[in-house]
Amino acid sequence: MSFFLGQRWISDSESDQGLGTVVEAAGRFVTILYTATGESRQYATKEAPLTRVIFNVGDVVPSHEGFSITVTKVIEDKNLYTYVGTHVDTGEEVALKEMMLDHFIKFNKPHDRLLNGQFDRLDWYQLRKKSLKLQHQQQQSELTGLVGARVSLIPHQLYIAEEVGKRFAPRVLLADEVGLGKTIEAGLIIHQQLVSGRAKRVLIAVPESLMHQWLVEMLRRFNLKFSIFDEERCLQYAEGENPFSAEQLVLVNLDFLANSPDQFENIANEDWDLLIVDEAHHLSWSQDDPSVEYQCIEILAQYIPGVLLLTATPDQLGHESHFARLRLLDANRFYSYEEFIKEEEQYGAVADAANGILGDARLDVNQQNTLKEMLSEVDVSSLIDDLNNGDDQTVQNARSELLSQLLDRHGTGRILFRNSRNTIKGFPERKLLATELELPEAYLESISNYIASGDEEKLVASSVSKMIFTPEALYHLEPQPNEWTDFDPRVDFLIDLLNENRQNKVLVICAHAQTAKDLEQALRVKEGIRAAVFHEGMSIFERDKAAAYFAQEEDSAQVLLCSEIGSEGRNFQFAHHLVLFDLPRNPDLLEQRIGRLDRIGQTDTISIHVPYFANSPQSLLLHWYHQGLNAFEHTCITARAVFEEFGTAMMQTALQGLWQNDAIANIINASHELHLTIKADLENGRDKLLEINSSGQGKAESLVADIEQLDSNYDLPQYMFSVFDVFGLEQDDKADNAIALHPSDHMLSSNFPNLPDDGTTVTFDRQTALSCEDYQLLTWDHPMVVGSMDLILSDEIGNASIGILKNPSIPVGTFFVECIFTFEGMAPSELQLGRYLPTTPIRILLDKNGNNLSDKVAEDVLDGQLSPVKKQVGLQLAKALKSQIPALVEKAESYSELQINALQQQAMTSMNEALEEEHQRLTALAKINPNVRQSELEFIRHQQTELTHFIEHAQLKFEAIRLIVVSQ
After folding, report:
1. What DSSP letter does each residue of 587-605 carry, written as one string?
2. Topology (CATH level 3) of domain 8-106
3. HSE, side-chain direction, 13 A CA sphere, residue 890
4. Candidates 3.40.190.170, 1.10.287.130, 3.40.50.300, 3.40.50.80; correct CATH number of 430-615?
5. Residue range(s) in the chain whose domain bears CATH number 3.40.50.300
6. Which residues does residue 738 pair with via DSSP β-bridges, in sequence order?
7. Residue 781 near residue 711 (C-beta atoms within 8 A)
């Protein structure tokens, strides 16, 4: 290489430095000043990773003064170039010396990079091609937004998520029974809306007690980083500044909304796309006296387009409160409670007709008349006759058709989803194993002293009162000579249980973090038992690590010791033994604890071990739960109502020291009677038609099958391994279908998507990710995968390359040019243009004469025959063919343009057919079901108009070029 002062060069390894200038060339070294960044580099002249920048006639060249010229003549004088050309703006002739070139020039266009020696390795080029193909596939996928969550593939959850998540501004009530996954359904809907672009800003409002659970669930299951806002955080912002402008995904508690009018006003002044309210039954309402919380949500729901309300409380427990929740979703539709009651009466007849269709007996006259009246638009007499008199197949066909028509017309079926354990199968049995122990004298003394320390009313109101159910915590309120683990018989009970079940995982849940920590120390010191601890004092990372230590099969903890927080949102269904070291006074918390193991997919009977003290507050709770509510061995759907009725009486009795007398027996008996009464009312009021609609009627199973097929496909692992290799990540295989990833010193990009500074562990296996919650589950929706693809395609990585072809049947020196173009449109993400016109790669392979060989030479075959080229050889080849390549690129572009019309017509036809069919379906449905909102119909028409415009204005983009030269 020869260097002269004033020449312009570009760095092969640091192209982002812009155009460099030779400022010193003496002896064996050359110094280049990069004016764009203000940095200089010194290189050895013989091995400098530099390429001389030389423009040709026809190129548009920018000046550092801001104007550009179209080159008509190139003059070389004393090793420096002068470009003569016409001013782009004025048309006058201008001479531009090499020294005056724009310092910020970067060669992004594929052929510019190639001609200036800025070419990449072959594997980078192939990775770019693969990224384009996979992007094309994923933009058309019906599963986008559904596959990315770390969740089991449970049919009814996926069906609800797919049905609701694809809607424009969905407004629905999710009312599944406890344990059926409302939070997961909501998370899937949020994720789908965000990934599809239909939502960008999301506001979640939940009770204070659920804040942490939602924060963790959204992050751990859906990779969604919500920010908690409370009064303390809001005060960190300057006066007049709206704190809620800072984040897209916000989590607040309902009390904060109700008690901070200034901050509520700030929230209301922001634009949100989706509002989620958990435990919506807490929003108390009456026509004359709605609660402050209800009024806050009502104000937000009036202008936020999408609203999801979550509640496990059945509508049969109060028509007025149920009406109030529906009113939040559509105040125009549900405007009058009296009218709603009249409509509800009709729902009863519909439900009775549905029960008749589902039953084995013939339809009675009332059921037949109801069906004919409800389905008056069509004659269903023949279907009714088939159902009553046909053979098995005829009956099945008639049942399916009648149910399908009823579902479309059902009053709240489109905005209300409710599943119960009566219709969802796959839950395990639960077995109570209660062990009575003697109450230690030290505990009895602590409890007695506490009861004697104040009057009953003050004790009931005190936060300390709950500790009479956790005597070890009450014992240590005062300084004590002994540790509670030295004398508490539950410790020995736990050790014996663990020794008897050495091959089984055991989950232990207790009320307090200190109890869990003390137990871990006692198990380790007394018996050498390895235990993991999980409590609220740990960071999310530490909790994930503890959960993983418990979940893994080898070198793991046999037991996980959780504080109450361990019953929030975590899934430990691989374990079958649950120890309730104490009992919570709220039956909802009891169900949450058992729900960590009682999940769909649990493969074994759950053994619920309860070591309790005889004649103590614990024994009172045990008998109330077991005999009054049957809450250990069955999900107690009446728990909240019974607790509201008898919870205070239970607490008062416990604080009176009456743990085993007639008063307790009376409370237990009365609780049991109320439990049976409510349960019978709920069963009689079950809306089986609604449950069938909510569970998906077979469509849910096909969704599961589609996702399972995608999970088992090897395209994603192969692609990501290529990404890791090209970007230079350190990879260490683990034994359990996982790979540990760490940054390295030679990474292509220092900010690899979603890779922490200390690394992470990833897996492509859903079951592995479910059992090891500190692993990231890589799917097509995962931020690391999406971010990697965006990083590759938004940058110049692999867009220019050179390969050597060794083929004895082709003369040495022959060359080919392979060009990759994409045809794409730019549209707002909520329009989902990619479903109809995905970014479509077009490959053109030309010989030196410009003949198109694309259809004759298979892409995979050619890739397999190419070998890399050394840098110096590549530079020589690019220089030698520099004059011929621009014309071939222009030829390739003309070949690509021939395919544009067909792609546009295909996209237009696909879009219009899909949206027209959806519009016709919803228009017909709106005539018989007023829950179809006019805004949904208007959005479809708007989408059609906008998509037509963007498809018509789609453009061709030059993505990549590869020079292929035949060699010996």
Report:
1. HHHHHHHHTTT--TT--S-
2. SH3 type barrels. (2.30.30)
3. 6
4. 3.40.50.300
5. 430-615
6. 763
7. no
**Domain formed by 713-779, architecture:** 2-Layer Sandwich (3.30)
Tokens 């729901």 -> residue:
301
- The pLDDT tens digits for 237-267 are 988 899 999 999 999 999 999 999 999 999 9
3-state secondary structure 196-241: HCCCCCEEEEECHHHHHHHHHHHHHHHCCCCEECCHHHHCCCCCCC
- At 430-483, the pLDDT tens digits run 999 999 999 999 999 988 888 888 766 666 666 677 888 999 998 888 888 889
Q: Which residue in 414, 486, 451 sits closest to 659, CA to CA?
A: 451
Rounded Cα gap, residues 913 and 771, in angstroms: 43
Beta strand spans in 27-67 (E)? 29-34, 39-44, 50-52, 60-62
CATH topology for the 155-330 domain: Rossmann fold (3.40.50)
pTM score, whole prediction? 0.76
Q: Which of 510, 454, 441, 513 is nearest to 480 (CA)?
A: 441
Strand, helix or coil at 801?
strand
Tell me which H or E stretch contains 73. strand 68-77
Nearest to 167 by CA among 417, 423, 424: 417
Q: How far is CA 506 from CA 138, 557, 575, in A?
A: 41, 9, 6
616 neighbors 447 (Cβ within 8 angstroms): yes
What ranges make up the beta strands (E) of 183-321?
A: 202-206, 227-228, 249-253, 274-277, 306-310
147 vs 221: CA distance, rounded Å: 11
SS3 203: strand
- Give the alpha-carbon dihedral of 792, 796, 797, 798, to 10 degrees: 120
C-alpha span between 46 and 42 (Å, rounded): 12
What number of other Cβ atoms are within 10 A of residue 88's Cβ? 14
Those residues whose C-beta lies under 8 Å from the C-beta of residue 721, and which sit 6 or more positions away, are: 731
